[in-house]
Amino acid sequence: MEQHIQNLYEVLSQVEGFVYPNEIELNWSILIVLYPFITGLVAGAFILASLERIFKVRILKPTYGIALLTALSFMLVATMPLISHLGKPFRAYEIMITPHLSSAMAIFGFVYLWYLMVVLLLEIWFDYRRDMILWANESKGVKRFLYRALSLWTTDISPKAIALDNKIGYIVTVIGVPSAFLLHGYVGFIFGSIKANPWWSTVLMPIIFLFSAIVSGIALVMLIYIIVSKVRKVKLNMACLDMIAMYLFYILLIDFVLEGLDQIHRIYEAEESFEVLHKLVFGKLFFTLFIMQGLLGTIVPLITLGIFQFYKPKENIRKVIYLIVPVLILIGVFFMRWNVVIGGQLFSKSFYGYTSFKIGLIGPEGYLMAAFWLIVPLLILAFLLWLLPPWKKKDEQSEIQSA
Amino acid sequence: MPQQIKRLIVAFAFFILLFLVLRQVLKPSSFGDLGHYRADAIQENIDSELHYAGIDNCSKCHEDIHMDKAIGFHANLNCEVCHGPGMKHVLYAGNFTDRQLPDSLLLYKPVGRSDCAVCHQVNAARIKILFDTIDNSMIRQIDAMTHNPVNKRTNEKLNCIDCHNPHQP
């Protein structure tokens, strides 16, 4: 039969029950899943760094620099999945030039800028200023120029100036924590404020997004710390890892309870959308929600890390587990974003039907594109770690002592 | 003022200034004249070429078809949903009465099965109950794959218009 009818047949075979014509195809696909995922990593990594700085958890020191640079490298890429999802990416800047207060996305641009410029860059700058000046003196050519330019050609490294750096850095971190909450809470808000979608529209959304963000960011920094240590061939600081694992455990627990609360709330309310969501959760989302997010991404890490709080197995075993658990958690949080973004589009807003989601390997919305935007921040991170290695920072204290 | 603070203020001032300049340069010139949008957009839309002429224009020259259609099931359909945009045709076809129209003025003739299927193909999304509860004017559904595809005697393939008059089905 003719091509046209064939196409219609094919499309309709993916649909169950009644869906509105504009719901047959999912418009927000994997790139929109990546956006909250990557932004979450930023917020989480930053909050881990702040733990060290504000609450003076000295034991986390080895991960402080790594966490900050991780946050920066993912921050630089956070908007890219969104922009490459646009039909006209080169118009993306217009949202910043003619913003409207009623546009959640336009305001996000400014929340993003605030966080990038006023929080992350400033904190890193104050933290590294002295080292950049010292490194500039030690290196030659382009690298020397780069350090000079990055330190904005400052030269003052008197104890007084450094004390000021530390003080301002501290203040920036204090401002940074609510900013990080705002940044990621805002991403949750963008979904949570969509009234028409019962799967998204909950006031808990920003909070759930925030806690899963912290979980994923901490897991990522843990993983990167282990890998970087392996590459540098230095010994892992187990006390530090144990501490991170403890934080990870408690925040994951809170995250789990919050998400459970959200679901219980939904089940108890049992609004008219309940039936369609119930079928969705046990049907099309079963694998990604219960297996990937629930079992692999939450229950298994919770039990493993929970046991560690009472009984610590040998170091070698812990090392292996500290490598596996963050990966599981990252997968879990990725699928949490997936379940929100994709799940929210799988059912019809008429509550009478479902569509299905297909994704290709290539193409502007395919797996490869998504993988690309996950690899780019890692490359940026590698570059930043080469340029600003946190482990080469000269500790003022030790220098004073040795002098 | 400490050196590093001075430098930072300069750097930030530079970026903010850059942003303001870029904003001024990149902002569409007529933005904000009438509201939070580009005022020129209105004129651009007014100036854009018309493609559809509307049924009243068609019936001026095709009165017969219009009358046929007006008493059939397709009475409420606009000519152009089937024949495509006809503005040019309306403007210039009058010069070709009783002559062959040039290609650029010919309109699409939806003679294929798939053309009718656009509206009549069974579709789960057009469930009957839903339409019946709203009003009874739902579009009748057939399955274009099975609804009289061939002439049973001669085994010839059939188009919908072999049996149904498109203007008066």
Structural write-up:
The complex is a heterodimer of chains A (403) and B (169). With 403 residues, chain A is mostly helical. Chain A has one domain. In chain A, 73% of the residues lie in helices and 1% in strands. Chain A has a two-stranded antiparallel ribbon. Chain B has three domains: 3-47, no CATH class; 51-108, Helix Hairpins, CATH 1.10.287; 110-169, no CATH class. Helices cover 43% and strands 0% of the residues of chain B. In chain B, helix 3 (55-61) crosses helix 4 (63-70). With 169 residues, chain B is mainly α. Chain B is elongated. The termini of chain B are far apart. Chain B has eight helices and no strands.
Helix percentage range of chain B: 40-55%
Q: Regions of chain A with pLDDT < 50 over 5+ consecutive residues?
A: 398-403
Rg of chain B, rounded, reads 29 Å
- Show unreliable segments of chain B: 130-136
Distance between the termini of chain A: 88 Å
| Domain unit count of chain B | 3
Strand content of chain B: under 5%
Rg of chain A, rounded, reads 23 Å
Termini gap of chain B: 87 Å
Biggest β-sheet strands, sense, barrel of chain B: none
Structure described in brief:
The complex is a heterodimer of chains A (403) and B (169). Chain A is built from 16 helices and two strands. Chain A has 403 residues and is an all-alpha fold.
